[in-house]
Amino acid sequence: MNLEIPPDALAINQSQKAGKTPEESKILKAQNFKLPGLTRYREGVMKESFYFVQIVDPRFGFAASPEESCEDEKNNMEKLMSLLNDLNPKPRFVVVCGNFTNSKPDEQEYFPQVETFKDCFQKLDSEIPVICVCGKNEFEKEPQTASIESYRTNFGEDWFAFWIEGVQFIVLNSLYYVEFKDLDGFAVEQDEWLDSVLLEAQVNPPQYLVVIQNMPWFLSDSNEAENDNNIPLSTRHKIIPKMKEANVKALISGNSNNSSKNEGLEAIQTSPFSDKDSPGFRIFKAKTDSIQHKYFTLDNTPKDLNNEFN
Question: What PANTHER family has UniProt attached to this entry (predicted)?
Answer without folding.
Answer: METALLOPHOSPHOESTERASE, CALCINEURIN SUPERFAMILY, SERINE_THREONINE-PROTEIN PHOSPHATASE CPPED1
